[in-house]
Design goal:
By secondary structure, this protein is an alpha/beta fold. It folds into three domains: 4-129 and 304-319, 3-Layer(aba) Sandwich (Rossmann fold), CATH 3.40.50; 132-214 and 327-347, Rossmann fold (3-Layer(aba) Sandwich), CATH 3.40.50.10800; 219-296, 3-Layer(aba) Sandwich (Rossmann fold), CATH 3.40.50. It contains 17 helices and twelve strands. Strands 2-1-3-4 form a four-stranded parallel beta sheet, with helices on both faces. A four-stranded parallel beta sheet has the order 6-5-7-8, sandwiched between helices. The chain binds 1,3-dihydroxyacetonephosphate and iron/sulfur cluster.
Length: 350
């Protein structure tokens, strides 16, 4: 576990990280990307960290891969690439850098390491897990194979390297339906997200999709009753949900897609009002880009994603602590599952 007082004393020996309105003013171009959602007072706090991180990144030939659920100061201030799980995995494999800092959760860092074993992959906080990744082990995959002999196993990227290694192919929320549809067998095993699997089953009726009973603690909290009640009072609002939500929530929504699919929908449709049925930072991150869209409604926080902070990013860049390692034998098998997903996605034009 990261000792925050040690983190702070290490950083204060090397940097002046006191809030600085002058420095904040000199970094107006960066602030302009988030000024609708980050107050000037908060920006004066963040600016010294953003400056230190960006300088150190260049010195270490490092890149920061930021997931769409990062807070705005991370998403807009220090990330070199932002995106959903599939986009970040592809970027990890392609990017030319010695070091990747994964501003996201642990399974994403493992995926980067699996695809780029020669790079150093740093996690700002090793405890940034995921309820889905924690819900299944490689034994669970074997249990499903024993129950449905011959059926291929499609595992969500929100899994550990061991689970990916035990699976036939991975998927993300942006390609799950197409990947399941492309399997030869009539029965397809999907792990570990029961709701993503049920949503895919609805879209791919020609397959018998069987699933593991895992769920995302952020998205499982939404109910169709909440959505219908919200719609009653806000009939003009477009309701856009992530496919980790239970099927009745998706049925009550106007659109469902991965985090990048959600951004694309907002960009293409520019609704007057939108409710994003997903993690809270999504709406904050895109509200400067779409000032004409009013984002309404409740959102839920992912406690794992929220473990990542500017302070921890700077600390791992200074110390090079928290390097993510994957056993090479497991990584080799896991790479096959992830690479099959990337190749099939390209083949399908996704
Ligand atoms: P995306 O692939 O849609 O970014 O989802 C990742 C995730 O963890 C959502 O909860
Ligand atoms: Fe995992 Fe859900 Fe958090 Fe995504 S939002 S990292 S699926 S717990």
């Amino acid at each position: 576990m990261l000792d925050l007082s040690h983190v702070r004393s290490t950083l204060s020996e090397r940097f002046d990280l006191a809030p600085s309105p002058d420095l904040a003013a000199s970094m107006q171009d960066v602030y302009a990307r988030m000024d609708r959602v980050v107050s000037p007072v908060d920006w004066a706090v963040y600016a010294p960290y953003v400056k230190a991180i960006n300088e150190l990144k260049a010195a270490r030939n490092a890149v920061i891969l930021g997931h769409n659920y990062m807070t705005p100061e991370i998403y807009h201030g220090v990330s070199d690439f932002v995106g959903d799980s599939l986009q970040l995995a592809i970027k990890a494999a392609e990017v030319e850098a010695d070091v990747i800092v994964q501003a996201g959760v642990h399974f994403m860092a493992e995926t980067s390491k699996i695809l780029s074993p020669q790079k150093t992959v740093l996690m700002p906080d090793m405890e940034a897990g995921c309820s889905l990744a924690e819900s299944i082990t490689a034994d669970g995959i074997e249990e499903m194979r024993a129950k449905y002999p011959g059926a291929p196993v499609v595992s969500y990227v929100n899994t550990t390297a061991e689970v990916k290694a035990a699976s036939d192919i991975c998927c993300t929320s942006s390609n799950a339906a197409q990947i399941v549809a492309a399997m030869e067998s009539d029965t397809v095993i999907m792990t570990p997200d029961q709701y993503l699997a049920q949503n895919v089953a609805r879209d791919v009726p020609q397959k018998n999709v069987v699933f593991w009973p895992g769920s995302c603690i952020v998205h499982e909290q939404y109910t169709a009753e909440d959505i219908n009640e919200f719609r009653k009072w806000n009939p003009e609002t477009k309701i856009i949900a992530h496919p980790e939500c239970p099927p009745p929530v998706i049925a009550a929504s106007d659109f469902s897609g991965s985090t990048s699919g959600i951004i694309r929908f907002v960009s293409e449709n520019r609704p007057k009002q939108a409710m994003l049925v997903t993690e809270c930072s999504m709406a904050s991150n895109i509200s400067d880009e779409f000032p004409e869209v009013e984002f309404l409604g409740p959102c839920n926080m992912c406690p794992y994603m929220k473990k990542i902070s500017l302070e921890k990013i700077l600390y791992v860049l200074v110390t090079m602590d928290n390097q993510v390692e994957v056993d090479p034998a497991i990584a080799e098998k896991a790479r096959l599952s992830v690479q099959r997903m990337i190749d099939l996605s390209r083949e399908l034009g996704l």
